[in-house]
From TrEMBL:
It holds the Pfam family Acyl-CoA_dh_2. It comes from Streptomyces asoensis. The lineage of its organism: Bacteria, Bacillati, Actinomycetota, Actinomycetes, Kitasatosporales. The keyword Oxidoreductase applies. The keyword ATP-binding does not apply. Keywords: Oxidoreductase. This is Oxidoreductase mmfh. Residues 1-20, 393-412 are annotated as: Disordered. Residues 1-12 have a biased composition (Basic and acidic residues). The gene is mmfH.
């Protein structure tokens, strides 16, 4: 999906075909969610929360159930499918796409809870909305008979107000040591206090407020060590996404709302550039403006290709260290490309494009906010990628001709 048109039926490019064992998101339902989110995008930005109609549309699109195990009625879907759907919805409302993407992702984490804990979340259906605050851990989860006693405050919990459950990460002691176990605990929304603290520059509609928990007992069936939630886990019969680590495609999923926001900015900017004011030629008559269009569109397309490959690779090789290293690199680079593209459009768009109620400035704010997420920082991704390359180089040196004869193995 490299064009920047309004949402419509599209076919996959055929460049890479992700491997799936689970179901896929219904295209018509995703399109309906995108359109509903777009209708409420300005209000979400103003009110700092999604409208109920947008939340319902995201749920009906199947985002919450996308990674939920099949035994609970979920899809056990793939990464590529979710990345594509997230970018499409973000092309209308990046805040809605961000929340929908996280509701999907958190279902994957909750699937690592013990069986009886999963039953509490999904026993009545797979469309449970799950918010989370896993990094950095906060508060304490002190062991007590039968479970843990949870206290603390967590920031930036996207969609907390509209979620049914919240996953919270907390160390087991007040003064954590380096080897202190951190636990993930599933808490019903009714046992959590949400504080109105989200006054961000961008992604305003996500309602990423702070939450507070005071002496809430969480039974063992709703707890799991954080390391087990985030790590890869070989699970016979499960879909590839169920077995993958949090980092395998997590960064590409985080970047997908920025891709949609950049496409939104490009569409709106192009309408401005192609419209001739009274008595004057359209801005696109200027060769310099055409260069802005060409370069920004190419950068957005390049970012889309990187994210498409990341999703396909994660679906095909869910436990490969190479895929994780390349995906983290590519998502961070894609985020930088999208910021550069939107920044260029914003600088050259004229006063009306930068109007406080316009789509370009909103998309500009949203793109910058997504790219500022810690998961998309190139320094950290580059460190992981360099460590993998160093390990591969050493292994190839030891293997000699045998390693060279193996040939290329995809993105390197």
């Amino acid at each position: 999906m490299l064009d920047h048109a309004e949402p419509q039926e599209k076919q996959r490019s055929g460049r890479s075909l992700p491997v799936r064992t689970g179901g896929t998101l219904a295209a018509d339902a995703v399109l309906r969610a995108a359109r509903e989110a777009g209708r409420g995008a300005a209000a979400a930005d103003r009110d700092r929360r999604l409208a109920p109609a947008a939340v319902t549309a995201l749920k009906e699109a199947g985002l919450a159930r996308h990674f939920v195990p099949r035994r609970w009625g979920g899809r056990e879907g793939g990464f590529a499918d979710l990345i594509t759907a997230t970018a499409l919805i973000a092309g209308q409302c990046p805040s809605a796409a961000w929340c929908g993407m996280l509701w999907a992702a958190h279902g994957r984490y909750a699937a690592r809870l013990p069986e009886e804990g999963q039953r509490e979340l999904w026993g009545r259906g797979p469309d449970t909305l799950i918010a989370a605050a896993l990094t950095p851990p906060a508060g304490t989860a002190r062991p007590v008979p039968g479970g843990r006693l949870l206290d603390g405050r967590w920031d930036c919990v996207s969609g907390a107000d509209t979620s049914d459950w919240i996953l919270l990460a907390a160390p087991a002691t007040d003064v954590p040591a380096p080897d202190t176990e951190v636990w993930v605990l599933a808490v019903p929304r009714r046992e959590v206090t949400v504080h109105d603290t989200w006054h961000s520059t961008g992604l305003r509609g996500t309602g990423s407020n702070s939450v507070d928990v005071q002496a809430v007992f969480v039974p063992d069936r709703r707890t799991r060590p954080l390391r087990d939630v985030l790590a890869a886990a070989v699970e016979p019969g499960a879909s590839p996404a169920r077995q993958a680590s949090a980092h395998l495609a997590g960064t590409a999923m985080f970047c997908a709302p920025a891709l949609g926001a950049a496409r939104l900015a490009l569409r709106s900017w192009t309408r401005w550039a192609a419209t001739a004011p009274a008595g004057r030629p359209a801005a696109l008559a200027d060769p310099a403006v055409r260069r802005v269009l060409a370069r920004s569109a190419a950068e957005i397309d390049a970012a889309a290709l990187l994210l498409e490959r990341a999703g396909a690779g994660a679906d095909a090789e869910p436990t490969a260290a190479r895929v994780e290293a390349v995906n983290r690199r590519d998502a961070a680079v894609a985020a930088e490309l999208l910021v550069e593209a939107v920044e260029r459009l914003f600088r050259t768009g004229g006063a009306h494009v930068r109007d406080a109620t316009g789509e370009v400035q909103r998309a500009w704010r949203d793109t910058h906010t997504v790219a500022a997420h810690g998961a998309l920082r190139l320094d950290a991704a580059a460190g992981v990628y360099a460590a993998w390359r160093e390990h591969e180089t050493a292994a190839e040196g030891e293997g000699g001709a045998q390693g060279a004869a193996a040939g290329p193995r995809g993105a390197r």
